[in-house]
Amino acid sequence: MNLAVTGAGGFLGWHVRVFLHALGWPEPVVLDRTDLADPLLVASRISGVDRVLHLAGVNRGSDEEVAAGNVELAGALARGLRRCAVPPATVVFANSVQAGNGTAYGDAKAVAAATLADACGGSEFADVRLPNLYGEHGRPFYNSVVATFCRQLARGGEPEVRDDRQLELVHATDAAARLVGAPAGGPWDATMPAKRVSVRELAGWLGATAATYRTGDIPALRDRHDVRLFNTYRSHCFPTHYPIPLVRHADARGELVEVVKAHSGGQTFHSTTRPGVIRGEHYHLAKVERFAVLRGSAEIALRRVGGDEIVRFAVSGDDPVVVDMPAMWAHNIANTGRDELLTCFWSNEIFDPRRPDTYPEPVRLDDVMMAAA
What we know:
Residues 4-177 form the NAD-dependent epimerase/dehydratase domain. 31% of the residues lie in helices and 28% in strands. The chain is α/β, with parallel strands linked by helices.
């Protein structure tokens, strides 16, 4: 399926692009705000695509800025739709459950939906009303209270609850699945199951999770929202909180290192790697994964999907540490020594070959370019 996306550089836009990448669909046509200012350019770039996702919007600012920004962005896309030679099959608007609620933001979203619906002509129009979204790499004090609390905790602070109200939280990957019309069969749910929680309860859960993880322990992850909230918190910890040092216990019998203390199970396995060999070269959408080298020396390398900066950790069995792989980061581990490498891996779930949540992706960008050639 060929898609065009506005707002691709934002929080939801990044999650949509990573999700499309995981599905193996073509890279979407990206329309930034400069593009939207030219109706003929918009028309030429969306002509004949299967689906247009309108994600661009304004969440923060004065009432006037929020209202004008959301209405104008929708109007710009509408002007391009009216000039389109071959209308897209479907236009999808990432609306809000707050649409029409009497606030500047909600009323502007309602106007934006009406503007796009009126401009669709021969295109199907899908008005998807999204609740509070959370997920990895959200902007604190902008995208969601989850991002704000995670950033505060990751920096050693405490969440400040100013307005204790009920929230309906949906992970951004589930929203992406709904917006793109994804098939079932992966660690996503296009029905967008929500977690209902108060702001105070959320602060308490994240605070307890941060306290447990501070020692290297994996907190109890009882359901899919627990896993995704934990991954969201970890995205604000990476890379400054890693590697996490491990304690080596030694006596006359030998040595013992506690690599994983998980409060809710999971799967642990060991592997050997020959000198010069690289393992990994993939990423996960939801899985929690931990690496610990027990013997030999290695380099663990990671790159955020869609980015180009590589984070590297030199690790050794002589000084054991753990590095946890953040969701939606391509990662690998390379044996950099002369001897065989022994590594312990842990995942929060037992591997299911029918739903592996593992997507091939080289860490080095030049390898990505070669694979695409």
